[in-house]
Amino acid sequence: MGKTSETTKYSDLLTTLIAQDILTSSSSQPVYLSSVEVIGGETFSSDFFKKLLGPLVETSDYTLSQLVENITVSRDRLVKADVFKSIGVSLHSDYSASIPQVLKYNKDQLIPTKVIFDVEASNLNAGDGFLNLNNDDNLNVNLNYLNNNFNENAESVNFGVNYNPYKPNQHLIANAKFLANLNDPSLKFLFDLFNTHQNNQAWQQASEKTTGGLIGLQYTNKLKNLYILTGLSLAKRTIHDIRDGAPDELKYFSGDYLKSSIVNQLVYSNVSFLNSITKNFPINGYNVTISNEISSNQEQDNIDNQTGFGKSTISTNLFASFANNNITAHLFNDIGGIYSPSSNPIHVSDRFYLGGFHSLRGFSKNSINTSGASQFFRLGLTLYAKVPSFIYSSHKNAAANIPSLEDGIGYEANPLRLYTTGSIGNVSNNILQDKNVASSIGCGFRYINHWANFDIGYYLAQRHNSDSSIGIKDGFQFSVSIGGSNRNVQ
Questions:
Q1: Which residue would you say has higher pLDDT here, 401 or 167?
Q2: Which terminus of the chain has a lower count of CB atoms within 10 Å, N or C?
Q3: Looking at residue 159, what is its pLDDT?
Q4: d(CA 88, CA 151)
Q5: Which CATH number fits domain 12-121: 3.90.700.10, 1.10.287.1080, 3.10.20.310, 3.40.50.1010?
Q6: Cβ–Cβ contacts within 10 Å for residue 389, how many?
């Protein structure tokens, strides 16, 4: 049985035929396709396979080379559906088949042939649950349910909830996403609903709730590691519970605002991992994410108060490893800007913010500029080093009881690393002229495991060209995540 691969373009069948020199000597041999069978696809509807195998079953009159070409097209469609762990394909003589008398080919004797696809479905239904704890958000619960075979048509339904009940960072973030395959399985119709409630009193002196959705098209090409999303978004945002001491520019946005947007995102990734199964620690390569939106924001109680703007962000990550992967460098960079032809201010929920465990450690959440701004940048470098074996010895050999966590090559499934990191950044309405840059440095330990991981380090932060110490949070920073699921890491 041939295994699916993100880098495999042609089927194992084609490779075998070329190796045996069959295509070269018999490419014009007439073949009658008597049937196409699928073994192992019982959980999918017949309409699902008819759509994906359409190029193959449209006709029965082939030459051998034409048949192999259409088998390859159909197999690639099955791969792009992204619901199979393995896909095998084989040709078999079918002399019991009844061959029509009138055919395109009559010079050579026809070979009645059937094609068999042998597939193994991935885990199509999964539920995940995580408990997360860090300096910014205290304890929060993250629950997720995924059904990748809704309606037996490889359509995806995903429900997610992130909940933090503890003051001063309470939040409830819920979303429901639906993905439906089009004729080309690389293209999917996307419908995403979301609802959020966030207590931002600790840093913004207000709370916010948002309800909305996105409808669009999603293109995924795993062979080229490319992802593209384009769509329309509508969201109702409400800033409420504003403190008396909050700045006037925040009070300006009190009440309901409706945001409508044209959004698009492009993600390109070319990354290799320390372990090819767990894929949790990048060692070489890069990825780029480009996000753009053209939006309009309108106050509901005053429809004349409307602002249009464009917003763009670019994020890059570069990975390189040395000394037999014992040292790994991670260079990261983010930059973004908002442009508006209007003199009206940009809504506080659309502005950029920086600071906190997930953006610029050593500073409290969004503290670089708590009012937000129209431009930002962040640049940093992290060096990871393998922990000496006398402190921690990782499991290196494949074991029969954990086949899903080892690739058999000796790479670590769940690495523990020492790290040192440094980063700089700023949030301003003109980052080229504003010299008040923030920076932080730190070092610590990081254990990377999909179901249980931790990150603990000591950080020192500083604001340059400024006497302000607002938001500086020197000392230990930590994050712990523990989870469980009814699925295996693949």
A1: 167
A2: C
A3: 96
A4: 25
A5: 3.10.20.310
A6: 8
- Contact between residue 417 and residue 446 where contact means Cβ atoms under 8 Å apart: yes
Q: What share of the chain is helix, strand, coil (3-state, %, to 5)?
A: 10, 50, 35
Mean pLDDT of 244-253: 92
Average pLDDT, stretch 441-460? 92
Predicted confidence band of residue 19 (pLDDT cuts 50, 70, 90)? very low
Provide the pLDDT for residue 4: 38
How far is the C-alpha of 468 from the C-alpha of 9, rounded, in Å?
57
User: Could you tell me if 461 and 422 are in contact, meaning their C-beta atoms sit under 8 angstroms apart?
Assistant: no
Place of tokens 């913004």: 204
CATH number of 127-395+409-485: 2.40.160.50
* Dist. CA 289–CA 334, nearest whole Å: 9
- pLDDT beyond 90 at 348: yes
H/E segment holding residue 461: strand 452-463
pTM: 0.86
* Spacing of C-alpha 242 from chain mean position: 35
The b/e string for 122-134 (b: 16+ C-beta within 10 A; e otherwise) is eebebebebebeb
